[in-house]
Amino acid sequence: MISRVFRWTKGLLSCALLLICALVAPFFGEERASPISAVARAQSVAAPPESRTASPRPGATAASPAPRKGGEENGLKPFKLAMGLIAGLALFLYGVEQMARGFQAAAGDRIKDWLTRFTKNRFAAAGTGMVATTLLDSSSVTIILLITLIHAGLISFTNSLGVVLGANIGTAVGSQLIAFEIHEYAPLALAAGVLLHLAGRSDRAKNAGLILFGLGLLFFGLGYLGDAMEPLKEYKPFTDLMARLGKTPLLGALAGCLFTLVIQSSSATVGIAITMAQSGLIDLPAGVAIMLGAEIGTVSDTLLASIGRSREAVRTAVFHLLFNLVTVSLGLLLVGPLTRAAQMLPGSGVARDIANAHLTFNVLGVALVIGFLPWIARALERVIPPKPDQTGGPEPGADP
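Given the sequence above, the corresponding structure tokens read:
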């Protein structure tokens, strides 16, 4: 109950923040005209047409053009931009939600069965977590489902750690898909998905249509975002800010973390970073920094889901937090080598490089930690001991 209240509160705050951004956006970059410039404009309007184009007299100062209201310099229309960004983001998030619903309806019970059966060792558990997250398109959903199964006694805490590692890799698979510039073909997937969902006679066909519809809407939303952000290419304050994010990775990570907390989706944050790279708005270091921040922001849902659960479930949520904190800290220290490694992988363009960096970062993080899982599990059991009223027998699913 407490977890549900927190999630509803978080959702309402997210909507409120987006609404505030939309209302404040028209005043972004607004400049107030001084009385002197106002008089100059009045004199210019009152003057005959031929005198307006005449060259200024020696010693006179030419009046600067009147600044556009609401930050509309360089053709930038803040309100239209804000509406485009919100619409594109809403379409993207709804597409992700529908695609996940389709996968859950088609393979929800199977995923639970996989998580229960194929987590007997850390490597099988990591593979299961990666597949489950790829299908569900959300590491948060996978880990929340995992926490529920741990609380029910169907999976042991020790075996759950590998699933958490695999879930991080699964999110990078989605980034690879988003990096393909196929949003122009999104209407085909939308039409096919709607037709299959409405005309399909079996549940399997209807679920497949829902998956196709969600996939098409996902790419359509990304394309809409890219078109909406096009005017920002010529807006110097924005380009300067993006350059600062690339030069200061910690600032970029903070932006990625806060944005993920607001929209509650690390996949959306990384997807938007990739879309901005495709539009030429950010460079590789800035995109990598935003991606690293998204890895921190995504743990909020896991922590909320662990409230009121068993100690084993709480340990899994804490492991997710600590793992992401440690790996992101290392990633921020090694942004240079990480970007160079991403550029060595197949593919061209900054967008593909960001997706490659996401995959490289998560694979290296898992490889760094997976060998130490037994010791990490024992350390967490000491830090978060069982409740006094819990039995002292072996954990369910653990080796005797």
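Residues 66 and 392 are 77 Å apart (CA to CA). Try to locate this feature in the token string yourself.
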